[in-house]
Write a structure and sequence with these properties.
By secondary structure, this protein is of the alpha+beta class. Helix content is 67%, strand content 10%. Belongs to the PMP-22/EMP/MP20 family.
Length: 162
């Protein structure tokens, strides 16, 4: 297995892990914990009873960015199945866009809730933050794999005299 294939396999694995963590983070209700309950992007649970959260601007932006990030990731992993020269650059660009959307969503949510008393970030938020470096590393893997392919093609035309 060559360097290009190893980088592509590593990028695919990191992208798949980022996808699972993002979907897991977006759909669960344990972004923050406070005495008597917990809250996510969509619902707030107090004393075992969950209800929908009324529309708030920062929660709407966070939820929209998380859903867009998950759809970007699905699109990036589907591009891998197609053949073509620009496939590596396109896939890495989508992974970097995915990372940017995650960064916007998670930073906004963290800033909004960081100064509240008796509020602690929980595992749903942490899994979102964990997906961020995975997506960026996946983008770098595909970018490096594309560069290895381009340099190999460029060097193959030169005669080698030793």
């Amino acid at each position: 297995m060559g360097v290009k294939r190893s980088l592509q396999s590593g990028g695919t694995l990191l992208g798949f892990l980022a996808k699972i963590l993002t979907i897991f983070s977006t759909t669960t209700n344990y972004w923050i914990r406070y005495p008597g309950g917990h809250s996510g992007l969509w619902q707030e649970c107090n004393g075992g009873t969950c209800s929908n959260i009324p529309c708030q601007t920062m929660l709407a932006v966070t939820g929209a960015c998380m859903v867009l990030a998950a759809s970007c990731l699905v699109m990036g992993l589907r591009i891998l199945r197609h053949e073509g020269d620009s496939r590596g650059q396109t896939t890495s660009g989508i992974f970097f866009l995915y990372g940017l959307l995650l960064l916007i969503a998670l930073t906004g949510y963290t800033v909004k809730n960081a100064r509240k008393n008796d509020v602690f970030f929980s595992w749903s938020c942490f899994s979102g933050w964990l997906a961020l470096p995975f997506s960026i590393l996946a983008g770098f893997c595909f970018l490096l794999a594309d560069r290895v392919l381009q340099s190999t093609d460029a060097l193959s035309g030169f005669p080698v005299c030793l």
